Amino acid sequence: MRVRQPTIPSPGFRRTDPSRLFPAVKKMAHRLFEGKEHAASYWKYRISPSDQLMQQVFDFLEKQSAPPYELAVDVGCGSGQGTLRLAKHFASVLGTDVSPAQLEMALQHATQPNITYKQCVAEELPLADSSVDLLTAMSAFHWFDRPRFLQEAHRVLKPRGCLALLNYTIDMELSYQDCCSDTLNQICKEFYTALQPYRSSHLGQTSINFYRETFHSLPYPDKEWQECVWDRRTMPLSSYIGFVQSFSSYQALLREDPQKAAALSKDICQRLMSVMQVSSADTEVVVAVKYFYLLACKPQET
């Protein structure tokens, strides 16, 4: 199959001025997760939406426009786990991120020939007007300059193209065989509580508010909001610990006090193993992750 590469925009008249729909104030987006070690941890431990969850995105897209689809763009793609989910549905997929280290990690695992990556900020995408069928941001939108990003999304989406913003909460739940899940999850909550003081003030208590507010203010008539989708997966206990260690709050603690960070995660892991009555952190547990998402379709231009 001949793969079409994303089109680089040329200067010219834009039929729709996105700034009329999404007023923006010039400011810097938040830049995190850019170190090489963090990028490696991101690839190893970060999760991406399951096939079942992504199918809800594709079902929404198919309601708006019929396949085949030419181009999907995954903004703030990090090490590329979510980008890979798009490959079989589009002729071409572009992942973008500000971090060279994250993109280097993504490139190492880009086995599909129709995936390419580009370093750029989310608010200035190297794409032509009305060129994108699906624009996604998976666990990244809350770090963007949101009004400017929404302007850019409106510019690059085709008429009837779709925007998908997905994220998950920190309220993950563990279960293990006949073990008491309440006891396990109380320990997990203590882990999250210990990291709360290191959470970025930009995010507030929860990032879901950004997404909910965006849904209500987005001037698209065809849109969908889902606040609770449980996505369960099996992984070693050590991977769950690594997943939490990849969070920005843990990384902030790690920079401030490496010994305190290491002691915290070691203590949590040992306490969980004690409750589970196992001796190895390779023991598999079921981790339930609570996702929320916003789906929206750019109207047909008249």
Report on the architecture of this protein.
- The chain has 302 residues and is of the alpha/beta class.
- 38% of the residues lie in helices and 22% in strands.
- Strands 1, 2, 3, 4, 5, 6, 7 and 8 form an eight-stranded mixed beta sheet that branches.
- Helix 6 links the parallel strand 4 and strand 5.
- Helix 9 runs antiparallel to helix 11.
- The longest helix has 19 residues.
- The radius of gyration is 20 Å and the shape is elongated.
- The two termini are 34 Å apart.
- The relative contact order is 0.17.
State the helicity in percent bands.
25-40%
Distance between the termini: 34 Å
Largest sheet geometry: 8 strands, mixed
Structural class: alpha/beta
Radius of gyration: 20 Å
User: In percent, how much strand structure appears in the residues?
Assistant: 15-25%
Spans where pLDDT lies below 50 across 5 or more residues = 1-16, 24-34
Number of strands: 8
SSE arrangement, N to C = HHHEHEHEEHEEHHEHHHE
- Please give the count of helices: 11
Shape: elongated
Mean pLDDT: 87
